[in-house]
Amino acid sequence: MASSETQPRFGQSVKGLLSDKVTSCSGDVIALTRQVLKGSRSQELLSQAARNMVIQEDTILHSEDSLRKMSIITTHLQYQQEAIQKNVEHSKNLQDQLRHLMK
């Protein structure tokens, strides 16, 4: 009779251990799922950051190109300003010469 009393206790303890293991495994699966989702979200954020970097790099390259063009335009404008100043000085000299001749 002792053996029949031990049998139900053993079965109950095995069921309890099995239930605990199932609960533990379920918790582990949930934790793993959360980590995978976090990793997926991290990957999305990294992809977005990479896209933003490419956009910014293109903007920087475009800005550098614009600055180079502006520098060239500035140089040409300086040359034109110098030429105009020389022509103004030359025209003043011509005006002085004309005044002198008309006297």
By DSSP, the count of extended strands is 0
Provide the β-strand percentage band.
Answer: under 5%
Helix content: over 70%
What spatial form do the alpha-carbon principal axes imply? rod-shaped
The biggest beta sheet reads:
none
Question: Which stretches are poorly predicted, pLDDT < 50 over at least 5 residues?
Answer: none
Average of per-residue pLDDT values: 86
Report Rg.
44 Å
Question: Count of helices?
Answer: 1
Q: List SSEs in N-to-C order.
A: H
Structural class: mainly alpha
Q: Kindly report how far apart the N and C termini lie.
A: 151 Å
Describe this structure in words.
With about 100 residues, the protein is mainly α. The protein has one helix and no strands. The longest helix has about 100 residues, at about 1-100. The model has no long low-confidence stretch (mean pLDDT about 85).
List keywords for this structure.
103 residues, mainly alpha, 1 helix, BLOC-1-related complex subunit 7, membrane
